[in-house]
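Box 3.1 A note on notation
Throughout this textbook, protein chains are presented in two layers. The first layer is the amino acid sequence; the second is a token string describing backbone geometry. Keep the layers aligned when reading.
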Amino acid sequence: MKKSNRNTFQKQILSAAIGSTILPSVSADINHAKHSKSRNQIASMRYQSLGKTNMLISQLVMGTAFWKDESVIPLFDRLVDSGVNYVDASPAYQRGESERILGTLMKRKGLRDRLFIANKISFYDEFLTRLTNEIFNGLPNEKKQMLRKRADIIMQKKNILRPGYHFTYFKNQSKKIELSCLRYVINQEYGRLKSWKSKIKARMHELVIQSLKKSNTDYFDVLFCPHGVAIPEMLEDESIREVMDELKQKGIIRASAVSMHNDVAGNLEKAVDLGFYDVSMIAFNIGNYNQVYPAVKRAADQGMGLIAMKAARIMDTPEEPQKEIEQLDMNIKAPLSIHAKGYIWALKQDEISACVSDMKTIEQVEENLSIFKHFDT
């Protein structure tokens, strides 16, 4: 799309966010690859339908969380040449550098049409937190303490941090649960979500525009919001559904999605109940399988596309499930690292379409590409 058309297009998106009538799609360029089911298929790679999205994605998904400079480009090229066709991005990764690198790559002629690109409205949570903090910070200390106590009671009742269910994949992960519970009780007490809707939606559209520009594309195949939801109540903001619907109508996204590391079963059940999410990316592995699988099965039965994350990271958590790790190592006898075996385990689950992997070295790339040779071991 030419630069002048791109700017006009982005202004139309933002006007829709603040209440203007949603216009028909403005350019055939936006739609040229929107309905393609398969991309970049190579015989040595395995592909799976992503729920009902009409996307046939590689079972190995390229994560970009560690893309901090151009040294990742040879790894990217190797993966694309090997048939990987799905890239998972976020403006939050590496303070935006990851998304910038993706945008540089998308300048290559014809590359965009070979890939399914997923991105996230990662700073939706920060915006909501800022709005609720404006209320909280203006309250007397006694009221603050009361709200904190209510949030603590909710967190205790949920029992999210119970053994075998919660695993620590990154620093301050459980802190997000605490903050989300507090944000929830503030919203309950003061009921501002509806009155904030116009500014929330405008901010969400603005963030999408920024990511489109930085990623050098006019559409995303999959868009996540929230990015890493902590508790199911945080999915109840009707602005999310409305923005996703508006973006679909404009041809800016194909599928709406949510990702979760915390309270996976609870959040996934809620996403299914809401009925508008097409895809979920979930922490799903040998550690939390028993407590999460019923929700996973229900989501898959409803046609939701499921991508597993933390299938390998589980081996390095403080809660390291040693018994399950030893069993995995015994059951999969291939000459692979325990991390690669974690991917094989996840991909053997019928409900899972793909696994996302953040590959930092060429050795990791080569080993992960080799897992498909060992599916029967």
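The chain is about 45% helix and 10% strand. The first helix runs from residue 3 to 17.
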